[in-house]
Amino acid sequence: MKKLALCLVPAIMSLAGYSQNDGGTFTGNIESTFQYLNEDSLIGALQPDSKGLMNTYMNVFYTNGKFKGGMRFESYLPRIQGYPNRFDGTGLGMRYIGYTDGFIDVTLGSFYEQFGSGMIFRAYEDRGLGYDNLMDGVRVILRPLNGVTLKGVYGRQRLSFQEGKIVHSNGIVRGLDADWNLNAAFKNLARKKLKVTLGASLVSKFQNDDREDLVLPENVGAYGGRAKLRYKRFTLDGEYIIKEQDPSSDNLYNYNYGHAALINFGYSQKGLGVILSAKSVDNMSFRSDRTKDLQDLFINYLPALNKTHTYNLVASLYPYATQPVGETAYQAELLYTIKRGSKLGGKYGTSINANISTAYLPTRNMDGIDLTDSSGVVYVSKPFGMSDSLLWRDINVNIYRKFTKKFNLRLSYYNIVLNNDVGKVTAGATGLISSHIGVIEAGYTINKKHSLRGELQGLFIKDKENGDINDKGDWATILLEYSVSPHWFFSVLDQFNYGNPDADMKIHYIYGSFGYIKESTRVTIGYGRQRAGLFCVGGVCRFVPASNGLTLSFTQSF
After folding, report:
1. Which residues contact 518 (CB under 8 A, 6 or more apart)?
2. What whole-number distance in Å separates Cα of residue 195 and Cα of residue 189?
3. What is the pLDDT of residues 234-252, one digit of tens each?
4. What angle do CA 148, 151, 155 make, to 5 degrees?
5. What's the average model confidence in pLDDT over 353-368?
6. Is the bond preceding 486 in cis, omega lying within 30 degrees of 0?
7. Radius of gyration of the chain from Cα atoms?
8. Distance separating alpha carbons of residues 241 and 303, to the nearest angstrom
9. Strand 521-530 relative to strand 508-518: parallel, antiparallel, unpaired?
10. Cβ partners under 8 Å of residue 466, min gap 6
11. Which domains does the chain have, with CATH numbers?
12. pTM confidence score
């Protein structure tokens, strides 16, 4: 791969040399975050030796007819808080060249890709999480017939970025995917109201057997199929994946097969939407290196069946992370709009959104299993088998209403129950943590340029058995935002742990920020305290330590 980088960079730079004359196009973006941190013993915030921390990224993409190329420069001097300690230095973190036309799309170098819902293969980046498992190798996409798409991938995953260079996994990942849109493939189905798309995937990994005490499979395969149906206002899609024997540190080196199933049903019409989802996962930790843990080198991605929350107390205190070792989860959501002009709907209408999601440990049957034999199989499980061990439950409802052209109000309620023994998010509690959260959000438009928005949030927590204070007690958050269109915005947030049983820890986490926007340029400056906790996106989480200091961020697109 080092040789590949040496070849790709001059190739892309040479394209830049004549792009102005032959109609080539450059696009990209730059993002930079700087932190200057102070020590704050009260919240456990430390000042790094360098005092200042910086992450910077710059993407440059080039297209010219059927040819394409791109690269990403990364710089960690040193990395900002919460990022893995293996992010270090300045250099090329991604680079590729390729060719595409209506029939074939070839990429050599770094690429991101997903098969189906991602349960068998997903290479992606989420910069906020410090997550990047891109593939380095080759990807080929073929479209031989109308409605048919074939994909092939082959390469190594990115593990880390050390001394300005990509560090890859020890394992090799290979995959094939086929997608078949029947309505596009057959003329007599083109105008049918029933739309059907079918798909199938096969992914395997190779890693040397480096254990003397075990016989480890060096090649591990996963395979499955999917279907998506759409008829008028109804949609139904499902996917099922089987993973072969894959002993790893995640499953304590057992030889069970893994399986994952995902089903989504939807109905929508004007003013009404219904979504029902179900997921079953067992032993689906699929990594290109069997010895890794946390979020390292996942080949696949298991979608989280819970609503993505944005309010401060709801999203950050007791988030839920997906459990690749096993979970059976369900979600239901209702979106309804009361007609405008009606008594309940008011002049502008009223929107109601209700959602419930829950997850349990799967049922694992050990009847007839001989743990002393050489098979390594330690239990039997079936899709959608559900035990009585609750992992997570979230019941929430929010009501939004615009009262006048200038004033709107949103009321929200959340009841979140988390099993902290499994999805460990806090050191202050064991067993089930049950929290009730209420949010009032109001927006007011002063005039064409000036607007004001505020949030008042409260989190109330008690031990379900004896009523004692659980974890760190009750919290309150107040947020005020003031915007001057189109350039300026100002905000102040106070997160207050007023219910902490330790009087010395009833702390205000105050954070103020302001920023300036002009076209595609955005500059933000913030200062204050931020508490330690988990930052989660789509069920994938990273721990962010407590901090007190200045944060400056800059983004630019071109």
Report:
1. 487
2. 8
3. 999 999 999 999 999 999 9
4. 180
5. 91
6. yes
7. 26
8. 13
9. antiparallel
10. none
11. 316-537 (2.40.160)
12. 0.91
